[in-house]
Amino acid sequence: MKKRSGVARAAILAVTIAAGPAAGWAGQPAAPEPKATAPAPTPLEPGAMAALDGMGAYLRTLNSFSVTAETTIDEVTDEGEKLQFGGSVLLQARRPDKLRVEADSDRKQRQLIYDGKTLSVYGPRAGYYATVPAPKTIRELLDLAERKYDLHFPLSDLFRWGTQDASVAAIREAAIIGPARIDNVMCDHVAVREKDIDWQVWIEQGRTRLPRKLVITTKGEPEQPQYAVVMHWNVNPKFDAATFEFVPPKGANRIPLHSNDAASAPE
């Protein structure tokens, strides 16, 4: 990401001002001035990496939190037409072993409920649900769900930033684009480049370094589809006992949750 810094602009201005002829002592030509060159852009700007580190560190301090989010996602048809679909996500978490996610989009609805022992997956529109044994922590659950069941939890990166699971080594470029407002909250707008994706995150300034917006661009397709989410936070939520319990609704039908070596999970 090539972004000319204030230091570089000042260097170019100095070269322009000093470009006129100059006389040396006793009318002798002055020795040629060394050419000033703008500093090479830093692929990983320290300020951008510090903002990402600060966000991850702050998220790790939250034992309980709730996030409501508006999402948009692009899907590309076989004819190359890019379509956009909207949705919403409610995520409620209490570390280390309680998680509830409700996703409602133009295409489907899904509830994912984890109580520390069991993962329940429910599709309200279809009226089907599945229940499987689960590991002891949220982080283990996310890994198992993706690896074994091809289930990708919305906003799962919130549990990975600032941990050994974060793919920091994959970052090729990172830069702070500047300040920006999300829901009237001042944020640092950080842009990151990886091999196959570009992503942007707007991180709240100050002590509460919360991600307020995220945009992911897939570069592997000519249309470069995007996923965008705007997040609204409650870092002091109150959960009751039923929040992380799944009770099958009347009339719902239980089915197996197929693993990756079988048919895909139900919608």
Q: Per CATH, what is the topology?
A: outer membrane lipoprotein receptor (LolB), chain A
What is the CATH architecture assignment? Clam
User: Radius of gyration, rounded?
Assistant: 25 Å
Envelope shape = globular
Regions with pLDDT < 50 over 5+ consecutive residues? 1-31, 262-267
Sheet/helix structural class: mainly beta
Terminal Cα span:
39 Å
How many helices? 3
| CATH class label | Mainly Beta
* Secondary structure: helix percent: 10-25%
Mean of all residue-level pLDDT scores: 85
Strand order of the largest sheet: 7-8-9-10-11-1-2-3-4-5-6-12
- The overall strand count is 12
Structure description:
There is one protein chain. This protein has a single domain, classed as Lipoprotein localisation LolA/LolB/LppX (outer membrane lipoprotein receptor (LolB), chain A). Helices cover 15% and strands 37% of the residues. The N terminus and C terminus are likely disordered.
Which helices and strands occur, and which strands form pairs?
Blueprint: H1 6-17, H2 46-60, E1 64-76, E2 82-94, E3 98-105, E4 109-114, E5 118-123, E6 128-133, H3 138-149, E7 173-182, E8 185-193, E9 197-204, E10 211-218, E11 226-234, E12 253-254
Parallel strand pairs: 6-12
Antiparallel strand pairs: 1-2, 1-11, 2-3, 3-4, 4-5, 5-6, 7-8, 8-9, 9-10, 10-11
Structural features:
single chain; 267 residues; outer membrane lipoprotein receptor (LolB), chain A; 37% strand; disordered N terminus; disordered C terminus
Brief overview, please?
Helix content is 15%, strand content 37%. With 267 residues, the protein is mainly beta.
